[in-house]
Design a protein that fits this description.
Layout: H1 2-44, E1 47-49, E2 52-55, H2 58-76, H3 78-81, E3 82-91, E4 99-107, E5 145-153, E6 167-175
Helix pairs in contact: 1-2
Length: about 210
């Protein structure tokens, strides 16, 4: 009994540490999957037409971001504890390959800024693309890359003292699948426009 009493605290501590480590790994995988899903969905949206380029609408982008909430589930509560930044990486008009971020849409209460650029960056040149330094992703003329950043403030399973992981981040990028209209993001009903998920707001879908 004495040996068990002396060893129990160490055994319990090790068990709780293992549970917390497993939860961290699961949450990192979930955040990675959310980033990939959002970038993939953003690359597919739009109203296709046989007579012209595919148009995208604010409602389409809102639906993409809302999908992140369902993918994360109640356990993650993505937009309460995190933030998603969706960027459109394109080539500056009338240039052969200069990169810029034409627009961004964001959602989430976490005050996390993009690590790879803000809307309008590169419009006057000097922007290498989006991603880690030396491994930036670029767009090609007439095409668009959907680049997603997800940041999530890890919520410990056991206690705040059991983990020091802090913020989990993930990125993903997909080329747009079709001939998309790059001139603007449309509103389906001008008289009752859908909300624009600007990156100046820090809120969720509640």
């Amino acid at each position: 009994m004495m040996e068990f009493a002396l060893g129990a605290p160490l055994l319990i501590t090790a068990s709780l540490w293992g549970v917390e480590s497993a939860n961290q790994a699961i949450m990192q995988m979930r955040i990675n999957q959310i980033a990939v899903m959002l970038a993939d969905n953003a690359s597919r949206i739009g109203e296709r037409s046989l007579l012209g380029a595919t148009k995208i609408y604010e409602s389409d982008l809102n639906d993409v971001l809302l999908g992140g909430q369902f993918q994360g589930g109640n356990a993650a509560d993505l937009y309460e504890n995190g933030r998603v930044i969706l960027s459109s990486l394109e080539v500056v008009p009338k240039t052969t390959g200069d990169q810029y971020i034409r627009w961004q849409r964001c959602k989430g209460k976490l005050e996390h800024q993009s690590s790879y650029g803000d809307e309008g960056d590169g419009a006057h040149g000097g922007f290498p693309g989006m991603g880690p330094e030396g491994a930036e992703i670029i767009a090609f003329p007439g095409e668009e890359v959907m680049f997603v950043e997800v940041a999530y403030e890890y919520q410990p399973l056991i206690s705040t003292h059991s983990s020091s992981i802090g913020t989990i981040t993930a990125t993903a990028a997909f080329n747009v699948r079709d001939n998309r209209d790059l001139s603007q993001i449309y509103q389906r009903d001008i008289s009752q426009p859908d909300p624009v998920m600007n990156c100046t707001a820090f809120d969720d879908f509640s």
